[in-house]
Write a structure and sequence with these properties.
The complex is a heterodimer of chains A (about 350) and B (about 220).
Chain A: E1 5-13, E2 16-24, E3 29-33, H1 40-48, E4 54-59, E5 62-65, E6 78-81, H2 93-102, H3 113-120, H4 135-147, E7 153-157, H5 165-181, E8 186-190, H6 193-199, E9 202-207, E10 210-216, H7 217-222, H8 225-230, E11 235-246, E12 251-256, E13 259-264, E14 273-279, E15 283-286, E16 297-308, E17 314-321, E18 324-331, H9 332-337, E19 345-350, E20 354-357
Chain B: H1 6-35, H2 39-53, H3 56-67, H4 72-79, H5 89-115, H6 118-125, H7 130-141, H8 143-159, H9 162-167, H10 178-187, H11 191-222
Amino acid sequence: MSGEILARLKTRLGDFSLDVDLQLPARGVTALFGHSGSGKTTLLRCIAGLQNARGELRVDGTVWQDATRFLPVHRRPLAYVFQEASLFPHMSVRRNLEYGFRRLAPDARKISIEQAVDWLGIGALLARAPEKLSGGERQRVAIARALLCSPNVLLMDEPLAALDQKSKNEILFYLEELHDALSIPILYVTHSADEVAQLADYIVVMESGRVVADGALTETLAGLDLPVKMGEEAGVVLEAAVGERDERWQLARCEFAGGSLWARDQGVPLGHRIRVRVLARDVSLAIQPVTGTSIQNILPAVVEQVSDDRHPGLALVRVRVGASPLLARLTKRSVNELHLVEGKSVWAQVKSVAVIEKSGF
Amino acid sequence: MSFDWQPVILSFKLASLTTITLLILATPLAWWLSLNDRWYKQALAAIVALPLVLPPTVLGFYLLLLLGPNGPVGQLTQSLGLGVLPFTFEGLLLASVLYSLPFAVQPLQNAFETIGRRPLEVAATLRASYWDRFITVAVPLARPGFLTATVLTFAHTVGEFGVVLMIGGNIPGETKVLSVAIYDHVETLEYDQAHMLSAGMIGFAFLVLLVLYRVNGRLNRGYHL
C-alpha cells in the first residue's frame, strides 16, 4: 500500500524509553492515544526527526531513517502542528502562511494559499499579527500553514489541548473537513477519548513508551484488554447513519451494521454519516426481553467474551449486535447469576448514546 | 579658544568599528553558547565575561605583552610586515573588541535563549534549513538583543579609559580618544575644555540609554504571545 508509514524506533531519555514497531495506514486519521508520559509525543517527534531515535522509518516507500541515513527535518515531506500554535510573532498571518509554501518548488505545491485560507476560514485574518488572534484562530492559521507544505503526512501534537471548548469544536469541524479532503495520513496525538471518538479511524494506544494496542478504531476499542486501560471512558464507537427522525419526540434512529439505536435528535439530516459512542457503563444485559423499562434501546445480542475489569467486583462483557461489538460493564455477581458465557443470547439495554456528527457525506 | 573635535571623532570611529566587528564575531558565538549544553559551555561563558570583572589595566597589561615586539602575537604581526600593534589605532581596536566582548555576547545569548527551541523547530518542519532558520527566525526574534548589544558595545567603547591608556597611549589623531583627552585637559588644568567634553559625554550616555530602554520596552511588548 502506498503512503504507508513503517516505524521501528527506539530511544531513551533519562528514565523513559520508547520502543515501537508500527505499521500505520496510508489514509485517514491515526490517533496516538495515551496518558501524559506514555511517549506519544516523543514518538511523533521522532517521526518528524525533531528528536533522535535509533531504528528505521519509512513513509510512502521513502526511507526517512535507517541504520545509515537520517533525513533532516526540513527535508522530510511532512507537516507538523504543535500544541501551541507557535506562529512566528514577527510575521503577519499571511507571511506565516507563506513561510513553508515559498520553500517548496512551485511544482511541489499541491495546495494554493487561497485554498488553505478558504478551508480554514481565515480570510479575514491575513493582514493581522499573530498576537491579535484568539487561540482558536491561531491554531487554524497554524494548520493552514502546515498544509501549505503539501505534506505526505500530517503530524498533529494535541492541537486542541490548549483551547477552550468552543474553539475545540470549531477546529474539530475543520479537521473533519480536512480528513475527508486530504488523501494523506494524519497522525494525531491526543489524550482525549472524545477527540479519538470523533476523528480517528485507527488508534495506537501507548503506555510507558510501548504500544499496547493498535488497529481499526471500532475493533480496537472493543478489545477487552484495552477498555480496562481506558477506565471510565471504556466503550465502543460505531459508524452509523441517521435512518429516521422522530419529530414528535425529538429522537433520531442511528443505523449501524447490525442494528440501530435511538438517540437525541441533534438536527443531523437523514442519511447523514455519524458516529455513535456507547460507553460500557451505560450498557446492561438481560437474558429476557425486558418490558416496563424507560430504556429505549434494547438490542438482541450474543455474548462474545467476558473478562476482568479494573475492580475485582466488575467484569467487562463484549457482545455482538449483528456485526458490531458493544461493551457492557457489569458486576461479577450479575455475570454469574445470568450465566453469561460465550455464545449466549442476551438483550443489551443501552441507557445512553452519544451522537458524533461527521461533516461531509 | 577653538574646540578640538579630533578626540571625539576618533572615539566614535573606534566605537563604530568595534561594534561592527563585535556583532560579526559575537553573533555566532552567542548562538553557539545558547544552543550548547556541554560542560565547557560554562567555562567559555566565564572567559567571555572576564572583562566585566577584571580591572582594564590587567587586560591592557597582558595585551601589551602579547602584542609587543617580544610577544607571540607581536612577532607574528612583525613577520607579516604589519609592525607592532600597541600604540596604534589597530591595536586599540583589537583591545576594544576584547574588552567589550561580554557587552555584545551576553545580550545576544540571552535573546537567543529566550526564543527557545520551538520557533526553530517550527521553521524546520516548514522546510527551512539550518541557516535559513537562523536568518529568518532566530535573528529577527533576537532583535531586542541585537539592539542592546549594539548600543552597549558602542557606549562602552566610547567610555573606556584604562585599556586605552595601557595599549593606545596618547597619540593625537591615532589613539587619543575622548576619555584620554579629558584626562589630559584636567592634568593641564584646562577645565573649560574638560567640562565641554565631560558634559557632552553625560548627555550622550543619557540619550543612548534612554533610547535603548524605550525601544526595548516597545519591542518586548510587541512580542507577547
